[in-house]
Amino acid sequence: MGGARYVGWVAAGLVLAAGACYCFYRLTRGRRRGGPGLRLRLSPSAEDLISDSYDDILNAEQLQKLLYLLESTEDPVIIERALVTLGNNAAFSVNQVMIRELGGIPIIGSKINNPNQSIKEKALNALNNLSVNVENQIKIKVYVSQVCEDVFSGPLNSAVQLAGLRLLTNMTVTNDHQHMLSSYIPDLFHLLLTGNGSTKVDSSFLSLYDGHVAKEILLRVLTLLQNISTCLEKDGHLVIQPTFTEGSLFYLLYGEECVQKIRALVYHHDADVKEKATMIPKF
């Protein structure tokens, strides 16, 4: 195995371990509005869009208004609310595309340098949801180094640190950008050793491989295992049986409990999940 390839999957595994308790990926939010007395907004202003009472999915025109507001204001309260609204809307795949096409990723990304820690956290959360889209990752990758610096230099277990770890988790689910974290492996080890329960992995992580888990999550955690196994396999089988410290992500992934869960997913009712589980080498 080449050194660069080894470093790549180790880095990815460490980041995924640190962010695993977040379950990798937030599912699409449903609408909460309902009941009598709702006020119709025929043409809401940008300020209306960030009000606590506004909870509709935004269209392209509304997203453009919101991005302009975010770019033009210096009011920290408005900036934070705009980032929250954009982040919530970025949980929908159609809006992930629209925000990118409207030039929103650099506007949101610029806010991770804001000295206000709450604004920085909300910007990272928005980028995290946007990063589920592979094309968005191409634009978001320019922020990876800055995110790493913030994650490892900021207060331990802080909201910004966890938000950064969630973004790095999504950015390293595939092997396209894993190499960008290779120089941060010592820091990742330190974080995993010193962080609290929010940054560590326990056996509950394996519950993500249960058959009743949402398809989107199943596909992502199966992709994680597939990517790691690809680095260790030859002719569809693992060349070596990896040994890792008990309690680590790798130890869980290659333990008997996980083996049984993967075997069960081969018979999953969803064809995509079944295919992904079948592609993982036998171990």
Task: Give a description of the structure.
- The chain folds into two domains: 38-194, Leucine-rich Repeat Variant (Alpha Horseshoe), CATH 1.25.10.10; 203-279, no CATH class.
- The protein is 55% helix and 1% strand.
- It contains 15 helices and two strands.
- The two termini are 18 Å apart.
List its salient traits.
2 domains; two-stranded antiparallel sheet; Leucine-rich Repeat Variant; 2 strands; 15 helices; single chain; globular; 283 residues; mainly alpha
- Class by alpha and beta content: mainly alpha
- Number of separate helices: 15
Poorly predicted segments: 20-42
If you consult CATH, what is the topology of the largest domain? Leucine-rich Repeat Variant
What letter string, H or E per element, gives the SSE order? HHHHHHHHHHHHEEHHH
CATH class of the largest domain: Mainly Alpha
Mean pLDDT: 79
- Main β-sheet description: 2 strands, antiparallel
Strand order of the largest sheet: 1-2
Shape: globular
Oligomer: single chain
Distance between the termini: 18 Å
CATH structural architecture of the largest domain: Alpha Horseshoe
CATH homolog superfamily of the largest domain: Leucine-rich Repeat Variant
User: How many whole angstroms does the radius of gyration measure?
Assistant: 20 Å
Q: How are the SSEs placed, and which strands pair?
A:
Blueprint: H1 3-19, H2 46-49, H3 60-72, H4 76-89, H5 93-101, H6 104-109, H7 117-130, H8 134-140, H9 144-153, H10 159-171, H11 185-194, H12 215-230, E1 233-234, E2 237-238, H13 249-253, H14 256-265, H15 271-279
